[in-house]
Amino acid sequence: MILSENNVFFVMGVSGVGKSTIGNLLSKELGIPFFDGDDFHPKENILKMSKGEPLNDEDRFGWLATLNKLAKDQLKENSCVIVCSALKNKYREILSNGVENNTKWIHLVGSYELISERMKQRSNHFMPTGLLKSQKDILENPVNAINVNISLTPLEIVEVIKKELNPKSEFGLFGLGVMGKSLSRNLASKNIKLSIFNRHVDGIEEDVAINFKNEFEELATTKAFDNVEQFVNSLQQPRKIMLMVNAGKTTDIVIESLIPYLSDGDILIDGGNSNYNETKIRLDYLLSKNIHLIGTGVSGGEEGALKGPSIMPSGDKEVYKTVAPFLNAIAAKDANNLPCCTYVGKEGSGHFVKMVHNGIEYVEMQLLAEVVNILKLSGNNYDEIADILESWKSAADSYLLEITVKILRKKEGSDWLVEKIMDKAGNKGTGNWTTIATAELGIPSTLIPAALFARYSSFYKEDRVKLNRIYDDGNTSSLNLTTEDILKAYQFARIINHFQGINLISEASIKYEWELNLSEIARIWTNGCIIKSNLMVELVAVLKETSNLLGYEKFVQKIKKLKPSTNKVVSQCVLNEMAIPCLSESVNFFNGHTIANSPANIIQAQRDYFGAHTYQRIDDPSGEFYHTNWK
Ligand SMILES: NC(=O)C1=CN([C@@H]2O[C@H](COP(=O)(O)OP(=O)(O)OC[C@H]3O[C@@H](n4cnc5c(N)ncnc54)[C@H](OP(=O)(O)O)[C@@H]3O)[C@@H](O)[C@H]2O)C=CC1
Ligand SMILES: O=C(CO)[C@H](O)[C@H](O)COP(=O)(O)O
Q1: pLDDT tens digits, residue range 591-605?
Q2: Which atom of ligand 1 is nearest to the CA of 204?
Q3: Domains of the chain and any CATH numbers
Q4: 240-257, pLDDT tens digit by residue?
Q5: ipTM above 0.90, yes or no
Q6: From the CA of 296, which ligand is nearest?
Q7: Residue 82 to residue 74: CA distance in whole angstroms
Q8: Active site residues
C-alpha cells in the first residue's frame, strides 16, 4: 500500500487487545517505523502499574506529551505507528495536539472475556489482569476511529486496517443502467469499496450516479461520479473498472473516454454483451497501451445481477486473478456453494460462451412460446396453461419455465396481460451473432437460427395480418395431444438445443485453441443465469465424460423414450398449420443427424455437374476426389 501523505497511526485500546502485535505488523506492512508507547513510560509509571496501581491522569500527561512530541518529530520525515491505550478523549487530544489532520486512530476492540483470557496467557507483561476492568470503565470510545475486532487473526486485522486506511475505492463500475445499478448494489453489499459512474447529458442524464447512491443504504460509502477523470482517480491502482454499457460503438466510445486517465497495468472488465471478435480486437488494442481487458459474459438479468449472476470472464489468466476476488464475491453460488464464475479461457472466449448462452436462451424461450401456443390451441386458457407448466417442474424445471408460469398468470384487471402484448419479438444481437458463428464455424446448431428467424418473422406483423386474411381457411384446430406428449416433445427439443449449443462451444474451443472446460461452463450456468435448469445440473457430470450428448447412453435412452411423442406433436402441429420452428427443427435435425445415408450425394453430384467441384466415392475408402463428365 502506498501512503499518499505522512500520518501517525495510533493503535489504541485497552490492555490485552494486542496493540503491540498489530502495531508491529502494520508498521512492517506499511514500511514505516514502529513505536510502542509503553517503552516511553517513565520509571515511576511502570513501578506503579506493576504493583497493580492504576495510573491517574497526572501520571499520564507527561507520558502522553512525550508521545505527541515523538509523533511530531516523526511526521517531519515519515509516517509511523505508535501504540498507546489512549483511552480518554483528553488523552487523545494531547497525543494529536498540533497534528490532528495527520492522525489516524485504530481502535482494537474485543469482549471482556476474550481479552482477559488472552491476558492470562501472557507471562512477561507488567499489567495484571485485574486492571482490565478499570481500563474498560474509563474507555471513551473514539469517534472517527477505525474499529477492528480482535477476534480476527493478526494478519486479517492488518488487512482490515489497510483497507480502511486507503481512501481510494477498490473497484469501479461504469454505466448505471439496468445491469450496472444491480451490480453496484451487489458489489457494495459485499463490502467492496466502490466508485460508480454514469455519464452526464444536459437535461437528460443528470446526477444519475449521486441520485442512485442516495437511494440505497448499501451505497452509503460508495463514491458517485459523473466526471470520468475524478471517477478514475478515485480508484486504487491497478484500477479495476467494470463497464456495463451497450455493446458495440458505445463500448469503444467509453473505452476511449477512459484511456487518457488510466495508468499502466489498469484493468477494464467489459461485462456487456460484446461480440467476441470485437473483444479480441479491443484486448490487443488496449494491451498496446499497457492496459488489460477482461471480457466477461454476465447473465441473470436485473435480479440476477443484484442477487448473484453467472459470470463468464476471459482474457489473460494472470490478469484475471486480480479481478477474480471481486467477481467471485458477487457471483451466484452453485449447489456446492462455489461461485458461478470461472476463468473461461483466452481472448474473447468469455463473450463467445455468453453469446452461445444467449443462443440457447433464444431457443428455450421459443420452445416455451411454441408449447404455450399448442396448449392454447388445445383449448386451455392462460391460467390453465400456467398450471400445466407448473406441473412440469419436477420433470423439466428451469428459470425460464418458472417465469413463464408467472407471466401467464399476470393479469391487468380481469384480462391476462400477455393477451395485450404486441407479438413482435425484439433482440439485441447475440442470437444474430450466434447464428453467424455457427455458420462460420460450419457447425449445425440449427435451433438457434430457427429461434432467431422466428423473432424476425414476428416483426412482419402487418404482413402476417394481411396474408392471414388470404390463407386462413377458417378451419378450427383439431389438435389431439396429451399434455404428457407435449411435455415429452419439449424435453426432446431441449436436449437437442443443449447438444447443439455445447457442440458449438466445443468446436469453437478446438478451432480457436481456447481449451474450454465444458463441464465447468455448465456448472457456472447452474445458478444465476437465465438458462439455469435441472437439465444443466445434470450436464455438469455428463460433460466430464463426453461433449456428445446424443451418443451418451443415459441420453440415448431418454431420446428413445421422448421421440415418439415428439413426432406426434410435430406432425399434428403441421397438419393444423401451426408454426413450430424450434420443435419441428429439433426433429428435422435429429433425423438428419442420425441417418446413415443422407441425400447429400445428390448435392455433391449437382455441384460436380455445374461447377466441377468433384466428389468422393463410398466405394473408394482412400478419400480420392472424382470428377464426372455428366453431359
Ligand atoms: N439487461 C439485461 O438483462 C442484460 C444486459 N446485458 C448487457 O449489459 C450491458 C448493459 O445492459 P443494460 O444495463 O441492460 O443496458 P441499459 O440500456 O439499461 O444501460 C446502458 C448503460 O450504458 C450507458 N451508456 C450508453 N451510451 C453511453 C455513452 N455514449 N457513453 C457513456 N455511457 C453510455 C447508459 O448511460 P445513460 O443511462 O446515461 O444512457 C447506461 O448506463 C449491455 O451490453 C447488455 O447487452 C448482459 C446481461 C443481461
Ligand atoms: O444477455 C441477456 C440475458 O442473458 C440480455 O437480457 C439480452 O438482452 C437478451 O438478449 P435479447 O435482448 O436479444 O433477447
Answers
A1: 999 999 999 999 999
A2: 38
A3: 8-165 (3.40.50.300), 171-347 (3.40.50.720), 357-593 (1.10.1040.10), 597-631 (1.20.5.320)
A4: 999 999 999 999 999 999
A5: yes
A6: 1
A7: 10
A8: 354, 361
